[in-house]
Design goal:
Purple Acid Phosphatase, chain A, domain 2; 2 domains
Length: 386
C-alpha cells in the first residue's frame, strides 16, 4: 500500500506537469478543452497501475491490450517528462545569458521531437539484444574448461511483450554460439500471463553441450513458482533449487530467489573439494547481485530492493569463484540507471573482480513493464573461461 500510494502520487504529479506543459505548448485556453485535457491526463496517470492490477484479476484480449497500451504510454511519459525538463532548462539558460528567447512552442517542439525519436530507438532496442563477449579468468579452473563458452541469460520476462516468437529468435542466436553451458539466472517469465505453456516449445530449442540450467527470480514467485518450475522442467532445462551439481569437473551452485538463511539449506556442498585440494572453481547462479543469505528479520522485498546486502559474505565463504546475476536491468530506462547503481552499490551491471571472487551482473534480455530500453542494451552474455 505504501508503494502504491507513492507510485500514484508521483505519476499523478508528473502527469499534472505534463498537462500544464501541453496547455502552454498547444496554446489551449478554452475551459472545456482544458477540462478534457485534465481528464485525459488523469486517466493516463493511473492507467499503468490500473492495467497491471486488472490483468492480475482477469486476463483476456481486452485487458491484455489495455496493459500493452498503458505500458507503452508509461514509457513515453517518462521521455516526455525529460523533454519538459529540457525545455524549461534550455529556456531559462537562454533568458539568463541575455539572448532574446526563442518562441516557447518552437523550443518545446524540438525537445518533444527528440524525445519521440529517442523513444522509438528505445522500443526498437528492447527487442534487439546484443551478444556481449566477456573473458573471465578463474583460479583453479579445471583444464577441460579452459576456453569453453558459457552463455549467461537473465531477465527474459517472457510474456505479453516478449512472446514465443521472441524466444524462438533468442534460442537461434544462442545456439549459433555453440555454448558449452547455458545458465539462466531468473525472471524467465514476466509473471503477467496465464499463457505460459506456449513457451515450452521454444524453450526446448535451447541447447548446450553440457546442458541448460535455471534458477528462479522474483517474477517466478509472482507467476506461481511451482508452475514455472514444472514448465521449465518439461522444457528439458535443469532447475537448480538451492543445490550443487558437478558438470564435467566444474561445480555449479544454484540458489533460488530470495536466497537462503544459511549454508545448511544448500544441498550438495560436500561435493565441492576442500580449498587445500585444488580444482575448487565453482560458479554461483543467483538472481540478484547480492549475497545469497536472506535476512529473515526484514521484509523480503524491502531487503532486496532498498537495502540489498552487497557484502557477498556467505557467497565468499562458500569459495565461489564466479557469481552470475541479473535483476537490475541496469535501470532499463534512463535515468533509472543512476538509481540501480546507487541501490546496488555499483554492482548493478558489469564485471567486478575482488580478489578471487568475480561477479557479472547482466542487464538482462527482456524488459519489465514498458517495452523500452534507453539506459542500456539487452544482452546475451557470452563468457569465455580462462
Amino acid at each position: 500500500m505504501v508503494f502504491l500510494s507513492v507510485f500514484l502520487t508521483l505519476t499523478l504529479s508528473l502527469h499534472f506537469v505534463l498537462y500544464r506543459f501541453i496547455l502552454r505548448w498547444l496554446g489551449v485556453s478554452h475551459p472545456v478543452l482544458k477540462t478534457i485535457f485534465l481528464a485525459v491526463f488523469s486517466f493516463l496517470a493511473i492507467s499503468f497501475m490500473a492495467a497491471f492490477l486488472l490483468l492480475r484479476w482477469t486476463e483476456n484480449a481486452g485487458t491484455i491490450l489495455f496493459y500493452r497500451l498503458a505500458a507503452v504510454w508509461f514509457a513515453l511519459s517518462i521521455q516526455m517528462i525529460l523533454a519538459v525538463g529540457a525545455t524549461w532548462i534550455s529556456y531559462a539558460v537562454i533568458r539568463w545569458i541575455g539572448v532574446p528567447p526563442a518562441r516557447f512552442r518552437l523550443l518545446a517542439s524540438g525537445w518533444v521531437i527528440l524525445a519521440l525519436i529517442w523513444s522509438a530507438y528505445g522500443f526498437w532496442n528492447a527487442f534487439h539484444p546484443i551478444v556481449r563477449p566477456v573473458e573471465i579468468s578463474l583460479e583453479d579452473l579445471p583444464n577441460q574448461w579452459r576456453g569453453r563458452l558459457i552463455v549467461h541469460l537473465s531477465d527474459l520476462h517472457l510474456g505479453h511483450f516478449h512472446g514465443p516468437a521472441s524466444m524462438e529468435r533468442l534460442a537461434e542466436r544462442v545456439n549459433a554460439l555453440r555454448p558449452d553451458l547455458v545458465l539462466i539466472t531468473g525472471d524467465l517469465f514476466d509473471g503477467m500471463t496465464d499463457g505460459m505453456p506456449e513457451f515450452e516449445a521454444p524453450l526446448k530449442r535451447l541447447t548446450a553441450s553440457y546442458g541448460v540450467f535455471f534458477v528462479t527470480g522474483n517474477h517466478e514467485v509472482y507467476a506461481g513458482q511451482q508452475r514455472c518450475l514444472d514448465l521449465v522442467a518439461r522444457s528439458g532445462i535443469q532447475v537448480l533449487f538451492n543445490e550443487v551439481v558437478a558438470v564435467d569437473g566444474l561445480h555449479l551452485i544454484g540458489v533460488a530467489y530470495p536466497g537462503v538463511r544459511d549454508r545448511s539449506e544448500i544441498r550438495g556442498l560436500d561435493r565441492i573439494p576442500a580449498a587445500d585440494s585444488g580444482r575448487r572453481s565453482c560458479i554461483l547462479m543467483f538472481h540478484t547481485p547480492t549475497d545469497i543469505r536472506h535476512d529473515t528479520t526484514r521484509d523480503r522485498r524491502t531487503a532486496t530492493y532498498f537495502h540489498p546486502d552487497t557484502s557477498f559474505t556467505l557467497t565468499r565463504d562458500l569459495g565461489v569463484s564466479l557469481q552470475l546475476s541479473g535483476h537490475s536491468h541496469q535501470g532499463q530506462i534512463f535515468p533509472f540507471g543512476f538509481l540501480t547503481s546507487w541501490i546496488y552499490n555499483g554492482y548493478d551491471y558489469g564485471l567486478h573482480r575482488e580478489g578471487n571472487f568475480v561477479l557479472y551482473t547482466s542487464s538482462g534480455v527482456g524488459t519489465w513493464g514498458p517495452p523500452m530500453r534507453t539506459a542500456t542494451s539487452p544482452e546475451i552474455v557470452a563468457i569465455t573461461l580462462r
